[in-house]
Write a sequence for this structure.
């Protein structure tokens, strides 16, 4: 006979302490007995304690693995000792998700739509020691169960939610009558979740007709819609129809009109059935368009009205002065940014709109609640599975216990992104109190190890094959190591390099490289073997200086009899000893595809006769570029202006080496010209011989197709290479 005593009144009948004879686990469908026993502090053979049992119940609930827990006492057996019975209702631990009956969508498609993983792998629970003591293995397994999307418990509400989401996926893709069921298949402490799908019938959109739109074209409104009509050129023959999607599209159109000042707009729809096809008719009643009469700002004690509004209202007036939600959001965003610049991250902007239906005008009041300046309490980093913390922290331009200035936060993100090791970097301020916030640095690392095998071609080296092994963020330290081998009919380049970031734990980079290169030009061949060492140091936030040296042995051979006299004079072997100094100022937001900022580089190279050097020359170059976005018309176009100027001269009775002359023209200078042909050529052979002076300018317009990934560009290049400045006239 059992005493059915619930938890809160547990064992009130046990007056004196007794030794526990046996512990029995019942009701568990998914969690194995040994895992549950391993979580208990009461053991078989130990002295009974009501307080310990209560603690064990609380501990079991805290795991999140159980929906219900009850404990009973079995009547004393022949030995006079009690038996404990733990009756639990456990939740399923899902280690794998499968789909059945999904002909229209693959498993990967459904996984992507649901935002879940489909397989974690086998889930095994390790054996516990005698006495069922909770072990590190059990605690680790519990942590995995609770942290991962798979390999953790899923409540039946969560499973039901997934089931409904699958039905919604089919519904949104034009299927009607789709039914989804599920079943759980237990296996060694976990379960496989199988969704059984009964796909319904598919319907599609045959046409979308918009009526009543006078101010905006059909094309513009249809681009707002997720529902699409057939288009043979886009291989869209039977686009799915979903009434839920159509309702959302109607709301998008209505919101679009309201954001453009049409506050009384009405949008409705009608669907005509044509077998499996659906013709959609959208009816628009635009109504009058409201103008923005005035915009007031209150509560701004730290900034003047003109500072907070800028030229946003003037630009809106040029477009007719209508009420536009976009304009109001830009001003509110500007207000928040201005206050964030001085550390007021918790500023709030409240909006009050007064509509005058008779005059078709709107007055807007923005009330600024300034708050207090915010200081950084802690900087936390998340997502750096490979990168060591200090690599990221040394790039931060706002530190703990400092004022949380927006400029410092933005600059920190830019510097971390420009390391080149991350797909994305976000710095999120998290309030802890009114005056103290944490900064959470969330990074998404990219694969920085690269093993490349392939073919490359350019107009100088021709076609060549290459093998390259490069590792950025080497061992998580931020260092860069690389080795490459390239061979072609006209080209050979073998190189090894290593960059030590923050050399001697200071903001300095040490670059080491060794190389063996060979290039066959039309009338001669040049071979270089040597090494270089460079040390660069940050002077301040934007300025960096570099000094270095290069030691090379150079050989000019295979000189064609038809080659120019200047090339023939280079014949033979010589040693090169070069010193170089570079000063650069870089404010670009992103090195690879910048959208704003500038780059200014001063580069000086000196060929010296030290240590047996045969070349004596001095070379000076200045390069500059400026990037900015079109904010006047808001087209999204990025404009870049570039310019280069340089000269090289020999001294000590030597001539300028041909490889140190400027070959203007080609893919990297004046596009549209062949390599070197925008400069001097030999009058006899018409081969380019390089220039002592160069001047190159460029204007380029880029439009992003996929942000930071793909751009279309138009450009205009202008420049010349010459031996005298007077030739530029």
């Amino acid at each position: 006979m059992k005493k059915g005593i619930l938890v809160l009144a547990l064992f009130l009948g046990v007056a004196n302490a007794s030794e526990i004879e046996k512990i029995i686990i019942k009701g568990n469908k998914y969690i194995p007995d040994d895992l549950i026993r391993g979580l208990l502090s009461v053991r078989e053979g130990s002295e009974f304690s009501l307080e310990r049992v209560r603690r064990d119940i609380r501990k079991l609930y805290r795991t999140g693995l159980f929906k219900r827990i009850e404990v009973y006492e079995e009547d004393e057996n022949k030995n006079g000792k009690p038996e404990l019975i733990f009756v639990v209702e456990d939740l399923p631990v899902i280690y794998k998700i499968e789909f059945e009956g999904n002909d229209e969508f693959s498993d990967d498609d459904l996984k992507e739509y649901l935002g879940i993983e489909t397989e974690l792998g086998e889930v095994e629970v390790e054996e516990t020691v005698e006495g069922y003591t909770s072990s590190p293995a059990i605690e680790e397994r519990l942590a995995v169960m609770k942290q991962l999307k798979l390999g953790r418990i899923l409540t039946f509400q969560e499973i039901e939610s997934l089931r409904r989401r699958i039905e919604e996926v089919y519904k949104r893709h034009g299927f009607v009558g789709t039914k989804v069921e599920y079943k759980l298949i237990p296996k060694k402490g976990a379960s496989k979740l199988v969704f059984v799908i009964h796909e319904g019938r598919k319907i599609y959109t045959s046409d979308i007709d918009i009526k009543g739109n006078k101010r905006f074209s059909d094309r513009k409104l249809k681009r707002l819609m997720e529902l699409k009509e057939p288009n043979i050129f886009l291989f869209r023959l039977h686009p799915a129809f979903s009434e839920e999607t159509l309702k959302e599209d109607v709301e998008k159109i209505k919101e679009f009109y309201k954001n453009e000042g049409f506050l009384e707009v009405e949008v409705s729809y009608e669907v005509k059935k044509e077998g499996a096809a659906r013709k959609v008719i959208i009816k628009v009643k635009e109504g009058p368009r409201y103008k923005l009469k005035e915009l007031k700002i209150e509560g701004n004690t730290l900034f003047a009205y003109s500072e907070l509004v800028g030229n946003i209202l003037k630009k809106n007036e040029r477009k007719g002065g209508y009420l536009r939600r976009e304009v109001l959001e830009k001003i509110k965003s500007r207000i928040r940014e201005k206050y964030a610049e001085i550390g007021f991250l918790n500023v709030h902007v409240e909006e009050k709109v007064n509509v005058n239906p008779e005059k078709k005008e709107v007055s807007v009041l923005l009330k600024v609640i300034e708050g207090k300046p915010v200081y950084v309490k802690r900087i936390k980093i998340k997502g750096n599975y490979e990168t060591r913390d200090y690599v990221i922290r040394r790039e931060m331009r706002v530190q703990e216990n400092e004022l949380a200035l927006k400029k410092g936060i933005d600059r920190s993100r830019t510097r971390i992104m420009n390391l080149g090791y991350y797909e994305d970097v976000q710095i999120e301020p998290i309030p802890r109190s009114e005056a103290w916030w944490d900064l959470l640095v969330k990074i998404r690392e990219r694969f920085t190890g690269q093993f490349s095998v392939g073919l490359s071609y350019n107009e100088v080296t021709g076609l060549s094959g290459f093998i390259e092994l490069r590792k950025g963020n080497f061992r998580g330290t931020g260092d860069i190591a690389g080795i490459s081998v390239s061979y072609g009919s006209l080209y050979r380049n073998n190189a090894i390099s290593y960059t030590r970031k923050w050399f001697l734990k200071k903001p300095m980079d040490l670059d080491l490289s060794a190389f063996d290169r060979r290039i066959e030009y039309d009338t001669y061949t040049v071979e270089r073997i040597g090494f270089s060492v460079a040390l660069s140091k940050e002077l301040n936030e934007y300025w960096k200086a570099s000094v270095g040296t290069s030691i090379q042995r150079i050989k000019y051979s295979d000189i064609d009899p038809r080659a120019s006299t200047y090339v023939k004079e280079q014949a033979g072997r010589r040693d090169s000893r070069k010193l170089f100094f570079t000063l650069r100022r870089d404010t670009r937001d992103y090195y690879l595809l910048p959208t704003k900022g500038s780059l200014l580089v001063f580069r000086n190279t000196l060929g010296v006769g030290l240590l047996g050097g045969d070349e004596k020359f001095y070379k000076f170059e200045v390069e500059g570029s400026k990037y900015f976005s079109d904010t006047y018309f808001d087209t999204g176009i990025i404009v870049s202006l570039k310019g280069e100027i340089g000269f090289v001269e020999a001294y000590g009775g030597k001539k300028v080496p041909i490889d140190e002359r400027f070959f203007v023209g080609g893919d990297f200078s004046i596009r549209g010209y062949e390599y070197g042909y925008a400069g001097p050529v030999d009058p006899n052979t018409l081969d380019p011989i390089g220039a002592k002076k160069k001047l190159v300018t460029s204007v380029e317009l880029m439009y992003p197709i996929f942000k930071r990934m793909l751009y279309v560009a138009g450009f205009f290049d202008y420049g010349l290479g010459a031996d005298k400045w007077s030739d530029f006239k």
Confidence is low (pLDDT under 50) at residues 1-16, 120-137, 143-150.
